[in-house]
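As a point of orientation, let us examine one representative protein, giving the amino acid sequence and backbone structure tokens.
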Amino acid sequence: MKKTEKFIAFLFLLVCVSCAKSNAQKTAFSKEALSETLMDTQDNQVAFETILSENKGKNTVIEIWASWCGDCVKAMPKIKELQAAHPETNYVFISMDKTADKWKAGIEKHQLKGAHYMANDQMGGVFAKAMDVNWIPRYIIIDKTGKIALYRAIETDFEKINATLDQLEKQ
């Protein structure tokens, strides 16, 4: 093999490995994500790690969303179907809204049942980066032990989300 062909093969391999890593399902949250605080509906700051510990012992679906997000609004009926099909599961909604007023109005308008928090620095901030949020809505499933069962799902992945919850409920 010529040097040029070897170099091209090396670059191809490097790109493939990088893509695989970026789409990989994580099994634990980063220290940055765990220590980041989110605002609750009473305007208190709560560490993400505390939110996770409050839900330990229950399967938990985390939805990262925003009231301005068309895809998030379009997926609201699906999350309600999910809640009806899996009533023993906890639901945590983390908003990427720019203002608390719009976030709280979105909760009320869409009648979202679950625990609600808002990222302090929206889509481009520390929390979003630590959670690898590059698209919303984004869904993460945590099992009863606190382990990540599904790290990266979007609004087109409800079959995968449902199957993951079905599997966890059998355990």
Notes: The beta strands are 37-40, 45-47, 60-65, 90-95, 115-119, 138-142, 148-154. The chain has one domain: 27-170.
